[in-house]
Automatic annotation (TrEMBL):
EC number annotated for this UniProt entry: 2.6.1.52
Pathway(s) where this gene product acts: Amino-acid biosynthesis; L-serine biosynthesis; L-serine from 3-phospho-D-glycerate: step 2/3
Enzyme class: transferase
Signal peptide: none
Protein's UniProt name: Phosphoserine aminotransferase
Family under the similarity heading: Belongs to the class-V pyridoxal-phosphate-dependent aminotransferase family. SerC subfamily.
UniProt cross-references to NCBIfam families, sorted A to Z: PRK05355.1 (NF003764), serC_1 (TIGR01364)
Keywords: Amino-acid biosynthesis, Aminotransferase, Pyridoxal phosphate, Serine biosynthesis, Transferase
Amino acid sequence: MSVMEMSHRGKEFLSIIQKAESDLRSLLYIPPDYTILFLQGGATTQFAAAPLNLCSSPTDAVDYIVTGSWGDKAFKEAAKYCNPKSIWSGKSDKYTKIPNFDSLNQTPGAKFLHICANETIHGVEFKSYPTPAGQNEVLVADMSSNFCSKPVDVTKFGMIYAGAQKNVGPSGVTIVIIRSDLIGNAQAITPVMLDYKIHADNNSLYNTPPCYGIYMCGLVFEDLVEQGGLAEVEKKNVRKGSLLYDAIDGSKGFFRCPVEKSVRSLMNVPFTLAKPELEAEFVKEAAKEKMVQLKGHRSVGGMRASIYNAMPLAGVEKLVAFMKDFQARHDHA
Ligand code: PMP
């Protein structure tokens, strides 16, 4: 019987989901007072679920730090279910920065402070985290694109959410890690499928979960544990990221990364060519070498190399060698 055929309530599947949860708990050192939920609907669904569950009324104040287009989407969705304020936006700098936390003007009494820990399109990553100002206020983070890429102190957060598909499994699984005392106060209009209490009380088995996806996540967690845990994973990611950023910075301006150095993402590396007319050629030649998906997001253009956990160092080495060769052939400045 394959995982696809199993009843999600049978003991075989229960052991799969429980093992996945316990491996994730050990990878991120998630304390017992935090609940782990395996949900559906992508991180996009959490843009609504977070305010629905953490605010008791649509008039509750919430703060958003908007460092890229995902943070902006989360902020806009929240406006339907609470009273969100963008207390900082990097838009005027084309989303290349993270604010200085001391300068933030947080709203007194806000229910939570939301960040997108890694902006997938803009390549901006928080390297440390702001502290919410209010006594009962919690930090909420969308970690979709850097989940399990490095150790994270979960206790700094009230809630972390992530779509699985970047680092830990196939699309269709969304993971929520939430401090258990924050569960159970959802707004009355909250659909049953978005209510964390329903899912927590039913150990993520209220309805049929994405069983196969959860099984795959479990296999990845097992592998990450075998690799030595997230500190080891981070070392590999630092090596990959440094290699690529050094190549960009060492290209004498032929390649450029617009993101401020101190907040460059280790997962998504955006770069442009000083001669934009060469970008299409770059993508075409790279594809011939079997390096695909290098075109930047349609909203920003340029190039973007996404080098998630599963990208081996050899893949980045190959890209860097190709970039140097491409420059040698096209840089006639
Ligand atoms: N947040 C971030 C940081 C993302 O990268 C993405 C997807 N690329 C999303 C949210 C939306 O996730 P989903 O497609 O799983 O809804």
